[in-house]
Amino acid sequence: MPADKRAGDRGSIERPGSDRGQDRTWDRIMVPEETLSICPAAVSSIGRNWPNLFVVQRTGRDGLIEYPPVDHHVISVQQSGALLLSRRLGGDTQRRRAAAGSVSVTPAGEAAEWQWEGLYGRIEVYLPPARIEQVVAEALDIDAERLEIAASLAVRDFPAEQMARGLLQELQVPALASAVYAERFALLMAVHLVRAHSTLRRPSGARKGGLTPFALKRVKEFIEAHLAEDVSLGDMAATAGLSVFHFCRSFKQSTGMTPHQYQLYRRIERAKELLADRSLSLASLSVAVGFSSQSHFSTAFRKIAGTSPHRFRSEL
């Protein structure tokens, strides 16, 4: 995976320079958070418990910006209407009219110079190469050296667009942004990158069938014991003795729900039980079942139970 190899090398990198014909030497490869000092973000995932991805939303008007190499693959989704977009990558410059929803991919370790004309708004999702390697090894069972993430500019990619917009929504509604939800998005985005933006384009060979009854029982008990905590998919998968990729697919085959959906469902069911204790305030009850505030608990409760916690309690 050549792009990933470059991301692991933090020495100097030569990059064809500006129109003056000079080359630019970067001192090192950056981590995603450092790009905020180059191009500020309207919102970012700094401070969130999102270990396998970094997300930002950037906005602006006519401009030019040069990014040093970053140690993550970058998936950019254009939010604003049509604008003229230019990207210089590896010495080559591409120009396209980018429509709202168009997707661009910049492989890890590549410096990029961006220029645009018009109102600018985009979501950037940064995925570590290690996440891609995990998907390749676990789902495809091939040598990661055979795969390389390919660059693209302003292409139509509805799945990537929807995933990026979903992540942005999670950032804008903090209490709904759990580690499980974000980690699942990272996994899905990694699988999609391999399928649609790599040198290997064939269906994955994930195992068939759901969890064994014993594994399903252990996972359900684990979730039940940690309803008030923001547990990760990795923790759940370890309980079942599976990789995250296989666990997610197997869990849904067994239950009809994703791990995040099941966890949310169980939190609401536990809340229904606690609502019978009228000495508990709704604020205390919200924390007891894993919500950061009463308002977010009420929103989730109404969505699943079809009524408000207050009305549910009054009818007990």
Based on the model shown, name its key terms.
single chain; alpha+beta; Jelly Rolls; Arc Repressor Mutant, subunit A; 2 domains; globular; disordered N terminus
Topology summary:
Elements: H1 2-8, E1 13-15, E2 24-26, E3 43-44, E4 54-60, E5 63-67, E6 73-78, E7 83-89, E8 92-98, E9 102-106, E10 112-117, E11 120-127, H2 129-140, E12 152-156, H3 158-172, H4 179-196, H5 213-225, H6 233-240, H7 244-255, H8 259-274, H9 282-288, H10 294-305, H11 309-314
Antiparallel strand pairs: 1-2, 3-4, 4-11, 5-10, 6-9, 6-11, 7-8, 7-10, 9-12
Helix pairs in contact: 2-4, 3-4, 5-6, 6-7, 8-10, 9-10
What does this structure look like?
The protein is an alpha+beta fold and 316 residues long. It folds into two domains: 2-196, Jelly Rolls (Sandwich), CATH 2.60.120.10; 213-314, Arc Repressor Mutant, subunit A, CATH 1.10.10. The chain contains eleven helices and twelve strands.
The appropriate CATH architecture of the largest domain is Sandwich
Given as residue ranges, the uncertain stretches (5+ residues, pLDDT < 50) are 1-23, 201-207
Number of helices, where a helix is a run of at least 4 consecutive DSSP H or I residues? 11
Give the radius of gyration. 22 Å
What is the general shape? globular
Domain count: the total is 2
- Give the terminus-to-terminus CA distance: 59 Å
Strand order of the largest sheet: 3-4-11-6-9-12
Please summarize the sheet with the most strands.
6 strands, antiparallel
Indicate the structural class.
Answer: alpha+beta
Tell me how many strands there are: 12
The share of residues in helices is: 25-40%
Q: Give the amount of beta strand, in percent.
A: 15-25%
Please write the CATH class name of the largest domain: Mainly Beta
Q: Using the coordinates shown, work out and report the CATH topology of the largest domain.
A: Jelly Rolls
CATH superfamily of the largest domain, by name, is Jelly Rolls
Average pLDDT confidence is 82
- H and E order: HEEEEEEEEEEEHEHHHHHHHHH
